[in-house]
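sorry for the late reply, my laptop died twice this morning and i had to redo everyting from scratch. anyway the thing you sent over, i finally got around to it. pasting the sequence first so we're on the same page, its 232 residues, then the predicted structure underneath. double check i copied it right bc i was rushing
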Amino acid sequence: MNKSGARILVVDDEIEIVRALERNLTAHGYEVFTASSGEEALEVMARHRPDLMLLDLGLPTMSGLEVCQRVRAQSNLPIIVLSVRDAERDKVQALDQGADDYVPKPFGVNEVLARIRVALRHAAQVQTGTEPRFVAGPLSVDFAQRRVQLGGQEVKLTPTEYDLLKVLIQYNGKIMTRQMLLSHVWGTGYGMESHYLHVYIGQLRRKIEPDPTHPRFILTVSGVGYRFNGDD
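ok and here's the structure:
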């Protein structure tokens, strides 16, 4: 079983399809969130920060195309469209609005799972600027599967801790100010809440540093912020 832990948001107003996808995705180790409308999808996305969205185009009130457009305006979240609309024009519209892939209904679950794996691998490489797997000494991070290990042992991170680690690794070796980290992890509305950052940096160090009292990976830059040290 693939214990990826990646978070998938399923957006569809057909309850049977949602249940089938939720059952199969959960069985393959994914954490699944669901929404039956575009408005609900945007709320769930803001609250849970999923790693990928499966999106139906034929939604009530707000169309799937509009959801796609709104998501893309604020995020690089991978979007795979699942739709009964199989005309070339519909595919082109969805891709033009920012969808990463298009799977017509009815679909095979194995095909959807394969498309998800590809999209997650691609997103991990694009977002980090590195290969989907990052290794520095005893620390190993598989971005495609959201798996963190220290000395071969699984490290359980909260979603926020993981997002913070991912940003630090993305800018490996570069100084990140507190405001930059707050904006990347919590959003542009944050900038002065440095106590958030202090708490989460402390939690992250306790989980990934061989000796948290003498950090090797997350270094403090006095009066400025932090720098990730990925060098051996």
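Helices lie at 15-27, 38-48, 64-74, 88-96, 109-128, 159-170, 178-186, 194-208.
thats about all i looked at so far, will dig more tmrw
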